[in-house]
Amino acid sequence: MTGELSDVTRTKHGRPVHHWRRDVVELAALFTAVAVADGVANLIGHGPDGPALLLISALALIATAAFHTWWARRHGHAPPAHDTGARPLPAARRPAGQSAPAPEADDGMTPSTLWRLRTTVKDEPGSLAVLCAALATRHVDILSLQTHPLAEGTVDEFLLRAPGRVEAPEITGAVASAGGADTWIERADAHDLVDAPTRVLGLATRTALDAAELPLALRQLLGRCTIRSLPARSAAGGRGPEEVPAEGVLEDTVLRLRAPEGGVITVERPYLPFTPTEFARARALVELDTLLGPRIPAGRDVLTLPEGNAITVRRADATDLPEARRMHERCSARTLSQRYHGPVGDADRYLNHLLSPRFGRTLAAQTASGRIVGLGHLLWDGDETEVALLVEDEWQRRGIGAELLGRLVAMAAEAGCASVYAVTQASNTGMVTAMRGLGLPLDYQIEEGTLVITARLHKSPVPARLPHEGVSREYDDSRLAD
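Structure (tokenized):
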């Protein structure tokens, strides 16, 4: 028993095990075999057929040895018919370069939840390892990690997958016990699984194709925040561009960036301070937009109305200001009052803002002669989205307003907006009918004769109805509009 324990101990430490008693027995058997062979050779060699018998005996021994070798190789590697007791080696005893055995397959029935978590840890060796170990004890899987170095520490941003039974307080409690401070957590979705460089490149591409994408790109880059574009000079005495340096300003939970057209873009996120890394990414997007200058996609659709007239729907911008002004001049006072909720003295006061891609997107309905007869606006109102329509009097009730509205709502859904709202008058039956024609859940609010209709986009899918280059189709006038 003592010899067996010694052998096991030597094996654990990687040293070979020698059995001296077995060596002595094998050596004695070898000497005995040599003596027997010598005696047999002397006895047979002196007989009349001695040499022939010795040759036959040698051949028989060679054949026996060859058969034994073949048999040992064939059956020596056969799988055992019973459990040998072998188990995978622990990591500490596994040879270098050998991977760990695959874990048992998950049955896929255990629910899980995605979380985005941000916390500040000390900038010292081992602090991140302690935090990861604390999450592992709750069976929380780290899918991605971004680090934002600061002067007083490091902000770590995680994308986590936790079992459904693990709630946010338990995760934040584990982070706090591991030394995390100023922890923030919220639910994530499948869109957050895209790694940060890929997401930033995608936002840069969208911004390069369309100037109106800049506010949306900033919102998707920085999370839930409020983005406002201020004119170059504020009549209320607010910050002008001369007070914001070209490189921008980072003020805890507020970013101020010089807008491409000379104004100021303000980004505010009260619940979470911005990091220098986020500030640098936002500034890079704004600089890209400034270098590319004004631009809108060139796509357009040609629609055929029931009476045979062809209408082109396309994106519009500030270059369409003269034709949009002429359309306003052709509209009646009642139509303008329903659109702007009161008397309209100077259309330029509205159109310069509405046609700017910094404040949203505009669609124009245009005749074959180039005359604009309808405008639809999708306006970024802080963290909300407004839709507005204006159709020239003699072109109303032909479905143009409903067509523009459907496309604007599709744009809002594509941009990730949860809802859109329209501000109108209760007497504007055309706008009310067009909103109902969307087939989306609607909320109504009436205040002093003003009707606010909100369409919820996240409850129902909205088909994409965006202008595309060279598309022509017949228009189905099955819906009422302005």
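The domain at 112-189 is CATH 3.30.70.260 (Alpha-Beta Plaits). The chain has three domains: 112-189, 196-292, 300-474.
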